[in-house]
Amino acid sequence: MGIEFQKMIPAETVVWDPETDETLVCLDVHQETHDVKSFTFASPEGKRFNFDAGQYFLFDFPIGPDGESRCYSISSSPHRENAFTVTVKRVLGGKVSNWLHDNLVPGTTVKGQGPLGHFIRPKGQKTKLLLLFGGSGITPVMSITRDLADRYEPLDIVFLHAARTPADLIFRNDLSGLATRMKGLRLQLLPETVAGELSWPGLTGRISPEFMKLAVPDIAERVVMCCGPAPFMAAARSITAALGVPSSNYIEESFDAAVIDEPGLNVEVQPAGKIYQVEFSKQKKTLAVCPDQTVLAAAKKGSIRLPSSCANGVCGTCKSKLVSGSVEMNHNGGIRQREIDAGMFLPCCSKPLSDLVIER
Ligand code: FES
Fold this sequence. Notes:
The protein is of the alpha/beta class. It has three domains: 11-116, Translation factors (Elongation Factor Tu (Ef-tu), domain 3, Beta Barrel), CATH 2.40.30; 128-256, Rossmann fold (3-Layer(aba) Sandwich); 276-358, Beta-grasp domain (Ubiquitin-like (UB roll), Roll), CATH 3.10.20. It is built from seven helices and 18 strands. The radius of gyration is 22 Å and the shape is globular. It starts with 22 loop residues before the first strand and ends with a strand. It binds FE2/S2 (inorganic) cluster.
């Protein structure tokens, strides 16, 4: 299905404004593997996107009465400015990924905020990278690789893609093409098992110190960028550190909410001074929150339903309406000034300065 753009606006002069623009139209859906699809979005007005490889968008999808927000990393090259692509794995029982796979078709409009995030290749130094990722952690790393391919700069990259089986290796054909074209790109594909692909030519298993020493003998000289599920990243962090990668050369990205530590979440708080009453109006619950506790941490402790992901003021997933009261908010780009002006705030990085009423 073709999408009609407003031809009156010269696209080369109009850039998507992260502060004010939010409507995106799906241009294309592409099946990457048996359970992974890529969704390509454009601005209905044909605006150009200006993002860094490795960044993501926060989407609002029309699911259920309140909608659902999720962050998805961009997998396309920033040099293709008229549209960007996110790549999503269907998660068993996942509300949003299943909705996307089953319902999002070309022509669907959704709301999106971004680009956001800081998982960006260090600039201004010789590009000697180890891109290390598991499963769908490939998406920001793919954007970084496509960016480098489009730049035609001298580079030295090891691209290590771990997955469950060969059938779960995302972008396998695209990667072969890139590796043929990019002289300094070395591909290491590591499925845990061959499953049905008995002709698999390479090694199988999980990342280990022994495997890493063999696959990337000069690992200590590389900047490591890692993305993937929490257990994978924990293993990657300890293996790379043991093999001499300094923490200053190790960059990681995760939106796996299940592993985020909530400050104070499991700590019994003994407030010495003032306690504030925080009311969650839709759930008709009120909590006592002390001033050194974030609203999200208090809500989780009190079994209040509040969406969250990064817990660090980055992704915007927890964004909520502050009906009354004031907070001290220290965010990291997950909310726009105009949203703050409209009474929104991020509970994950906000501490109460008074009693609060929150529309949740
Ligand atoms: S959970 Fe990410 S900004 Fe609050």
